[in-house]
Amino acid sequence: MSAPRSLAVTVLLAASACRSGETTPPSSPSQDQAPPVLVGPLERAQVERDVPGWISDAQIDNEAATKLASVPPGAEVTVIFGTWCGDSRREVPRLWRALDAAGPDLPFTVKYVGVDRQKTAPGLDKEGLDLRYVPTVIVVRDGREVGRIVESAPDGIERELLALLDGSKSGLVTGRTDLGPSS
β-strand 144-150 against 136-141: which pairing, if any? Predict the structure, then answer.
């Protein structure tokens, strides 16, 4: 295989990693093994303890993050992610930084669900949720889904989550071009 084609194949495999169930290449040479696959309901502390490298120094929009504390109360946010997934590793720790900036008394609940490489977990209705890519952040208000962020947040996860929670956006928010336009 020629060098340019080999590079293109490598890039394609890395880009589709959280869709196909393959792991992304390690982000640093010192990381010798794949991260553990944590499945089911998870707590942030467990992920940070058991999956090295999930503590992020990502820069966030502090103004948007702080505004998360003042959205209308009562929403439920479910974060479905894979500890094996590079996209989850990028987005979820950034979300945690934003939630930290918002403070301890959020007007919405947040739960985390880890999935395996087939996007399954005990008690998770993969088909009913139309779960194809991770991370997927689903915002529910009054028992109905108002929107979701899938795989990547074009304007930053803290801004996109704020928009879904305050009602200025609804529906699908994603950087993916194969799922339709972002709302």
Answer: antiparallel
Helix (H, G, I), strand (E, B) or coil at 34: coil
Across 52-75, b (16+ Cβ under 10 Å) vs e yields eebebeeebbeebbbbbeebeeeb
Task: Give how far the C-alpha of residue 19 lies from the chain's centroid of Cα atoms, to the nearest Å.
Answer: 13
Residues 6+ apart with CB under 8 A from 33: none
Structure tokens at 61: 């929009």
pLDDT in tens, 46-85: 999 999 888 778 889 999 999 999 999 999 999 999 999 9
Structure token pair of residue 137: 């952040």
Q: Is 92 helix (H, G, I), strand (E, B) or coil?
A: helix
Q: Judge contact between 120 and 126, C-beta under 8 A.
A: yes
| Angle in degrees, CA 159, 42, 98, rounded to 5 | 20
- Predicted TM-score (pTM) of the model is 0.82
**How do beta strands 144-150 and 171-174 pair?**
parallel
User: Which two structure tokens, joined as six digits, stand for 2?
Assistant: 């020629």
Please tell me what DSSP assigns to residue 144: E
Q: Is the peptide bond preceding residue 135 cis, with omega within 30 degrees of 0?
A: yes
| Amino acid of residue 6 | S
